[in-house]
């Protein structure tokens, strides 16, 4: 097994300085004495009117003046180690004070001049770091300091740059009055390089700003690292328009001065026009704001960087673009300097470069110091030479020391790629955790704020089902009237529907505030904004609760009652429906609502509108579909246009025709006999290329009671006529797999409905021609459905042996097909209504390239990055090649080589039962309590047990398994309107479709990776799984093949790790599957059709005897629980060549023990990691049930 790089990168090329900051600056002044050190374009040498020249100082002049100032301060009692607070604009005096402080060995403290106007905040800053000296640019700032601290504050010296008009303050010019020494005399600072030289403040977005002390070691390391990374020389000019209290300002100024480069202040504060003029006047500028040939480099940093910002900066015309990353605690730790044209070829995530300046970057599991693998998303930890030793006067858990270096937990979410380059995705504290998915509010804000006249902030508010709901708060300019729905559509089209805000509020009209809450430094205070939002929601909900019940509320209550069996009186209009429903009931409710009201409500809506009252309000606000429109007609009332006749498919159909003619001709048919053609989905296609002749086969033994041959033959003809996929074969062109639907004529159906002679008893169906190589399966290219009719001697009964291939069915639809067969046999009306699979298949295929599909692919790729590092956590262990349940005669390796006879031998010999499986049961009376109290349904409890058992069996830190998803939703419906190249069918968004009745396989797969987070409780663990499940369902239609392709070949190119990740995912897909097939017995008909199951006087019935699954899978967990029941059943089937039945039995008992432990209320607040895999509760062997299993 190849080694997988951990998510850590350390720049070992940098060494710590041996001199202090004063010495370093003096040495540079000596080396570059006559070169220009500083130009202040907005300051002039004299006060004469008309003097427009700028103050310009050489290194010798700056050194001499700052040394003189240091002597003057010393003469006035300022000693080494004193703290000098500066509230200065970008001006000559800022540089003077910075150099003088370094000469003295004092601590330079840059204070945000915007902060002092906020009295409380200014007091907090100045009291947290008491200063011996304060220097302010003007009297207004001096007065603000006095108002915040008062005259009695222990500040020994107060100086103002301009003429002093504030009592107690002197001008800097007055310092010379007490000077007695030679002002040009060298001054040797006694400071050690590791002593504090500069103190920065954090922005204080989460509360009080914290002081971050830095030394010559951290400052010099960064300055040297930046100069090397950006190739800055003494011939460069740095356009410095950042404020002097900002880390980037200080370190870039220091970088320039240590290299002998020139620093230019365009203005006292940032002004774009002034910066442009500065660049015009300079020949070689390393920091920009206009499109000029003199621009060398544009450097971007300070917040999350997005591609649009790179494009904007590239438009300015620099030769190079640089993106950097750092914080007050670590200064600048990465930079990525590249040619401007190369910087625009990346993806959505902007590369911030690799570690520089002796820094270490780690990506750890959130809340821990556990290193992840490269490619995995986690929390960014920063360490090494640039990182401070901790907050001043404050112990904080985010700071630690390890491997001889200081480290700080950044609070940022990010990852390292294969080359060790950093990508930062956002702040963890700002991320919205919706359905287990981390959503960056900045992306949504960026899209909304692109609209003219709109300023937006996005926060998350608590949501019981999704975890958090996305809420946008907008401020409109005067005259802007963009409706909320239009704003949602804008986000949906740009980012996908899953990032569209659930709620949008107007800052003034709804929340009652004119301005967004901001820190004094100008950063948004999301916590305050979130609180405003919650208060508004609470008031709104309170008003809604006072409404009286409306007629539609009563009607919706009746529908819920009919679907769940609960009395209408027991369903409160203000109780969450998720406390008593499952996923299938939600689907059925949506269908029933559409049938009754001709208004659409989705499962996604039910996640946000969880009570009957809120659902009624939602429906009352929605428009009714136009009567008689195509979308309101029953899908069986009109035949959809054949896919092969759509103009855009003409060329593809020609290729399919050519590929199919050989098979058609061999069976006596031609292209004119073909009824239709339509594409397979991503999961189904590969099943037609199995590893053995009977791959992905099912053999079902069925008895039809009280029915003769003529009747069952007629019923089977009617049945197959109604379901096109039963009459399909498949072909492939060079890109896709397709169903070819054959005619519902006797000439075709005779290949599928066969008579096999009589048998003596029902049990003979179990052994009839069992495992005969040429008969006991159906195989590509089809047909994929075959039924053999076997009259049972001396009885009125008929035996049927069905052969099915998984390319045409899944667990949800086949049970409905069998139910319908029973109806047909009984001549029962009305028959079940199915929605044409053709429409679903075409919609899925057409939308695979839209925004939602691409987002779904990206979601899975991000989740699977680095999975190859966890291959030791895979279960069950693989003993022989491939994963094949049942008879494996004729098996082949993936490359086509024939398998060695005897290599794959059942471990239990003739007693092998993996195909039949085992089934155990356990009573879990409190399992429904988790749903009633916490909205955690039984499937999540079962999945949680499976996750914990996997960790227990492998000893691993995470559980990796495949979950089978029903896929019973219309694919990517929310972004269909944004598709290009529409045809008439592109408007088919599935309104009114009951997804349970889509007439074919919609099953999908998802690779699930789960870890335990610290000591999270059982409820917290299961709630997190539920949120993750919502995300899985949201992205359930993501094409697995494209996920693997993108995982293997990311935008930056394939690597050993990316290939290993893809290979592991391929191996996982067939290894272990968790498959909760929901109970659909109560959701087969609409609310008005309940109770019409049996026709009086007709005793014919269809009975399943045995289900044999020959799927290419290693192990399948198949837990089930009927609605309102508390006995959980667990069936498993497995590859007999990989596992003994005793091993399986032990694992099953561990699974059920875990379910029982998680279900008990006394354990709900205990840590999930304490779960027990043995139980005193009775586990019953109930034998395999006669039902569908994989």
Automatic annotation (TrEMBL):
Span of domain Carrier: 555-615
SUPFAM superfamilies the record matches: Acetyl-CoA synthetase-like (SSF56801), ACP-like (SSF47336), CoA-dependent acyltransferases (SSF52777)
UniProt KW Transmembrane helix keyword: no
Any Gene Ontology biological process: fatty acid metabolic process
Domain AMP-dependent synthetase/ligase as annotated: residue spans: 26-392
Gene Ontology molecular function, alphabetical: medium-chain fatty acid-CoA ligase activity
Coiled-coil region list: none
UniProt entry keywords in alphabetical sequence: Phosphopantetheine, Phosphoprotein
Pfam families: AMP-binding (PF00501), PP-binding (PF00550)
Name by which UniProt lists this protein: Carrier domain-containing protein
Organism: Penicillium salamii
Lineage: Eukaryota, Fungi, Dikarya, Ascomycota, Pezizomycotina
């Amino acid at each position: 097994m190849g080694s997988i790089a951990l998510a850590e990168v350390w720049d070992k090329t940098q060494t710590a300085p041996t001199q202090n900051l004063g010495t370093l600056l003096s040495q540079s002044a000596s080396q570059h004495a006559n070169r220009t050190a500083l130009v202040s374009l907005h300051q002039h040498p004299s006060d004469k009117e008309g003097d427009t020249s700028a103050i310009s100082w050489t290194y010798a002049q700056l050194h001499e003046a700052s040394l003189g100032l240091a002597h003057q301060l010393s003469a006035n009692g300022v000693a080494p180690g004193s703290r000098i607070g500066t509230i200065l604009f970008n001006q000559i005096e800022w540089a003077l004070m910075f150099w003088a402080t370094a000469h003295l060995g004092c601590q330079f403290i840059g204070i945000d001049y915007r902060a002092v106007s906020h009295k409380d905040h200014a007091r907090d800053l100045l009291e947290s770091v008491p200063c011996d000296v304060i220097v302010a640019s003007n009297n207004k700032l001096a007065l603000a300091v006095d108002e915040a601290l008062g005259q009695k504050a222990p500040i020994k010296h107060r100086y103002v740059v301009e003429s002093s008009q504030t009592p107690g303050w002197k001008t800097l010019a007055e310092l010379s009055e007490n000077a007695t020494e030679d002002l040009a005399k060298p001054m040797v600072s006694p400071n050690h390089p590791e002593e504090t030289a500069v103190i920065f403040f954090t922005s204080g977005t989460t509360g009080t700003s914290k002081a971050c002390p830095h030394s010559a070691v951290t400052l010099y390391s960064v300055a040297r690292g930046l100069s090397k990374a950006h190739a800055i020389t003494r011939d460069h000019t740095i356009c410095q328009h950042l404020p002097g209290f900002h880390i980037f300002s200080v370190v870039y100024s220091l970088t320039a001065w240590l290299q002998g480069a020139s620093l230019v202040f365009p203005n006292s504060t940032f002004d774009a026009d002034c910066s442009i003029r500065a660049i015009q006047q300079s020949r070689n500028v390393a920091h920009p704001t206009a499109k000029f040939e003199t621009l060398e480099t544009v450097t971007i940093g300070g917040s999350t960087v997005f591609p649009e910002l790179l494009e904007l900066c590239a438009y300015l015309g620099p030769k190079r673009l640089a993106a950097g990353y750092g914080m007050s605690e670590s200064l600048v730790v990465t930079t990525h300097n590249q040619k401007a044209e190369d910087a625009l070829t990346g993806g959505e995530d902007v590369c911030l470069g690799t570690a520089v300046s002796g820094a270490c970057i780690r990506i750890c599991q959130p809340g821990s110091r556990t290193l992840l693998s490269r490619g995995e998303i986690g929390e960014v930890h920063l360490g090494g030479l640039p990182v401070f030793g901790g907050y001043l006067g404050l112990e904080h858990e985010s700071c630690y020391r390890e491997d001889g270096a200081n480290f700080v937990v950044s609070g940022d979410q990010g990852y390292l790629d294969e080359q060790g380059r950093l990508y930062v995705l956002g702040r963890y504290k700002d991320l919205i955790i919706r359905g287990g998915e981390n959503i960056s509010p900045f992306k949504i804000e960026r899209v909304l704020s692109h609209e003219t006249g709109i300023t937006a902030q996005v926060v998350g508010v608590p949501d019981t089902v999704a975890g958090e709901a996305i809420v946008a708060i907008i401020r409109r300019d005067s005259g802007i009237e963009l409706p909320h729905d239009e704003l949602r559509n804008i986000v949906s089209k740009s980012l996908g529907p899953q990032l569209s805000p659930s709620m949008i509020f107007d800052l003034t009209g709804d929340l009652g505030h004119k301005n967004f809450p901001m820190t004094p430094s100008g950063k948004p205070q999301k916590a305050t904004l979130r609180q405003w939002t919650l208060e508004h929601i609470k008031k709104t909900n309170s008003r809604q609760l006072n409404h009286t019940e409306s007629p539609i509320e009563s009607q919706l209550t009746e529908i819920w009652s009919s679907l769940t069996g609960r009395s209408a009186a027991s369903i409160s209009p203000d109780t969450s429906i998720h406390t008593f429903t499952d996923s299938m009931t939600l689907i059925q409710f949506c269908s029933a609502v559409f049938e009754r009201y001709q208004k659409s409500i989705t499962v996604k809506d039910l996640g946000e509108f969880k009570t009957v009252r809120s659902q009624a309000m939602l429906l009352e606000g929605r428009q009714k579909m136009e009567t008689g429109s195509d979308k309101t007609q029953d899908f069986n009332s009109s035949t959809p246009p054949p896919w092969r006749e759509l103009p855009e498919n003409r060329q593809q159909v020609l290729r399919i025709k050519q590929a199919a003619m050989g098979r058609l001709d061999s069976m006596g048919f031609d292209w004119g006999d073909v009824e239709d053609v339509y594409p397979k989905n991503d999961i189904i296609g590969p099943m037609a290329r199995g590893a053995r002749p009977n791959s992905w086969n099912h053999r079902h033994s069925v008895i039809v009671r009280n029915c003769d041959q003529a009747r069952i033959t007629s019923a089977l003809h009617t049945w197959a006529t109604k379901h096109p996929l039963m009459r399909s074969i498949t072909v492939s062109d060079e890109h896709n797999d397709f169903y070819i639907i054959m005619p519902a004529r006797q000439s075709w159906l005779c290949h599928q409905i066969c008579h096999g002679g009589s048998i003596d008893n029902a049990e003979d169906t179990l052994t009839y021609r069992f495992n005969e190589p040429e008969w006991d399966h159906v195989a590509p290219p089809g047909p994929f459905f075959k039924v053999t009719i076997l009259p049972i001697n001396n009885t009125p009964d008929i035996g049927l042996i069905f052969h099915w291939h998984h390319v045409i069915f899944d667990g949800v639809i086949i049970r409905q097909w069998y139910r319908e067969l029973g109806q047909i046999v009984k001549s029962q009306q009305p028959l079940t209504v199915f929605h044409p699979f053709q429409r679903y298949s075409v919609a899925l295929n057409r939308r695979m390239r839209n925004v939602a599909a691409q987002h779904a692919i990206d979601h899975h790729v991000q989740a699977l990055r680095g999975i190859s590092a966890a291959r030791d956590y895979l279960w069950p262990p693989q003993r022989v090649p491939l994963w094949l349940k049942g008879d494996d005669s004729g098996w082949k390796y993936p490359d086509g080589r024939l398998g060695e006879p005897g290599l794959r031998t059942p471990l239990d010999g003739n007693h092998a039962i993996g195909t039949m499986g085992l089934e155990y049961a356990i009573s879990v009376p409190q399992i429904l309590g988790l749903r009633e109290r916490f909205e955690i349904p039984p499937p999540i409890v079962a999945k949680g047990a499976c996750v914990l058992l996997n960790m227990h069996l492998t000893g691993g830190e995470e559980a990796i398994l495949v979950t089978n998803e029903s896929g019973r939703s219309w694919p990517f419906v929310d972004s269909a309107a944004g598709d290009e190249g529409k045809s008439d069918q592109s408007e088919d968004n599935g309104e009114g479709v009951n997804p349970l009745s889509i007439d074919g396989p919609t099953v999908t797969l998802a690779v699930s990776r789960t870890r335990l987070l610290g000591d999270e409780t059982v409820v917290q663990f299961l709630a997190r799984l539920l949120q993750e499940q919502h995300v899985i369902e949201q992205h359930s239609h993501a094409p697995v093949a494209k996920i693997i392709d993108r995982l293997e070949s990311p935008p930056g190119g394939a690597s050993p790790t990316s290939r290993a990740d893809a290979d592991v995912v391929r191996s996982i897909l067939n290894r272990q599957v968790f498959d909760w097939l929901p109970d659909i017995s109560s959701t087969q008909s609409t609310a008005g059709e309940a109770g019409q199951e049996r026709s009086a006087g007709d005793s014919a019935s269809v009975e399943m005897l045995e289900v044999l699954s020959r799927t290419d899978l290693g192990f399948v967990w198949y837990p089930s629980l009927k609605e309102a029941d508390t006995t959980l059943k667990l069936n498993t089937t497995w590859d007999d060549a990989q596992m003994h039945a005793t091993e399986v039995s032990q694992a099953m008992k561990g699974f059920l023990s875990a379910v029982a432990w998680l279900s008990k209320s006394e354990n709900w607040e205990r840590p999930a990691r304490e779960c027990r895999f043995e139980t005193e509760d009775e586990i019953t062997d109930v034998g395999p049930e006669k039902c569908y299993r994989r």
